[in-house]
Amino acid sequence: MRRILALPVALSMLLLGGCATDQRQDALTTTLNAYASTMRWGDFNGAAQFIDPKVREEHPISSLEMSRYQQYKVSGYDDGKGPIPNGQFEVTQVVQINLVNVNTQSERTVTDHQTWHYDADSKHWWLVSGLPDISRQ
After folding, report:
1. Global pTM?
2. What is the DSSP track for 25-51?
3. Which of 3, 7, 23, 134 has its CA 20 to 30 A from that of 43?
4. Which residues of the chain register pLDDT less than 70?
């Protein structure tokens, strides 16, 4: 009798675990698509809202840094191979971002190494690596 009951309980646990993984994956896809869309529009203020609140508090973006972002328009955002899992609650992603300087009209490409972390309490993915570093040539 115990074996008969153990099988449905085990299957239920596997299915529930799979549901959590699917929900986490769906949330990741939605978050990465929303972030990419925000970046493609060059909305760096909006993109900053994807940064983990703890990271934002510890490393606030200065008005000088934000004014640097406003000097550029995004002409391309290529997430290449997409996110790569780095454990159960973290993914990394390498993105090529094409930027056009609004003053000089010169274009350059920045490689953004993103790290995203899943917060199980809020069921939300947060960017922990910050906005792309556009200061490097």
Report:
1. 0.82
2. HHHHHHHHHHHHHHHHTT-HHHHHTTB
3. 23
4. 1-20, 136-137
